Amino acid sequence: MRTLLPVALFLSFQAFGQTTPATPPLQAATPTAQLAQAEDAMKHGRNQDAVPILEALSQSTPLPKGVFHDLGLAYYRTGKLAEAQKAFSRAVQNDPSDEESVQMMGLTLFRMGQPANAIPYLEKVRQWTPNSEADANYVLGLCYMNSQRYDDARRAFAAQYGVAPDSGAAYLLTGNMLINANLPELAAAQAQKALVATPNLPMAHFLLGEVALFKSDIDGATKEFEAERALNPGYAPVYDRLGDTYAHVGKYQEAQEALMKAISLDTSRTGPFILMGKVLLRRNDPQSALLYLRHAEKMDPGNFITHTLIGQALRASGQEAEAKQEFDTAAKIHAAGELKLQPSP
């Protein structure tokens, strides 16, 4: 039985040109020797060189054992997914117990946008190896999500992270996966179930607050972030979210206090510094705003929002020429970003 290779390694392969020297032309060699030559090329990253050797061997009689398995891997690693699918299908047909080919068939179908078709193959691998690697469970969970089998997805993610499938942690993990997939309503439902299972579970209220903020429900977001703060007072992002929601309703003193706590806990993120600058501008304190905004600028000079706010603070301080320079810089950064988003001709 072959040892299953890491899923993440295979998911990361993309087609690219080969720069290593080509494998010498085939000599009159036995199929076994040719297969060994192809496998050596693949071992050293020369997958393009292995493909013609394996293609020729796949037409030979008798068929060398494992040739379609190797051909599928070579195709997969060079980004030829349709060809990889056909090769792995033949490999599984020839040897239904070839666990790696079964797994790779599932991964190939997933990458081809066929998650429902990938599920039976990935489930079979899980049956063979119940304690399979974490990223295999992750891909299976994504396939379940894409097929709207959310309970099955939760069980897969629970297996990935080593938590009980019906625990609050499992529901919260699934909620986070759903929010990453831009499914906020479903994510909120999972977070609510997480709190039913574990009422004081950290991060569940934070997720609910994020969903409420996404829906522009400022009151609902504030309520959830305040609940998270009570459970998780050392989590810096909850304070800058509170600073944001307080500022939205004009509670600038509360916003400033919350943002100061966020900055005290974590000075590595620009967000709280930028928000503090905005709040201080609203409080008619441009000089103090500049201190925070200049710090944010040093951390990330390419943020056009920061330069816009610096311009506003400079203008409010009577420094019109310097303000114009900042507005011009902000416009250039923004225009450059818009240009990058345009599709190539």
From TrEMBL:
One of its GO terms (cellular component) is membrane. Belongs to the Tom70 family. It comes from the Bacteria. This is Tetratricopeptide repeat protein. TPR repeats lie at residues 65-98, 134-167, 236-269. Residues 1-17 form the signal peptide. It holds the Pfam family TPR_19. It comes from Silvibacterium dinghuense. SMART domains: TPR (SM00028). PROSITE patterns: TPR, TPR_REGION. It is found in: Membrane.
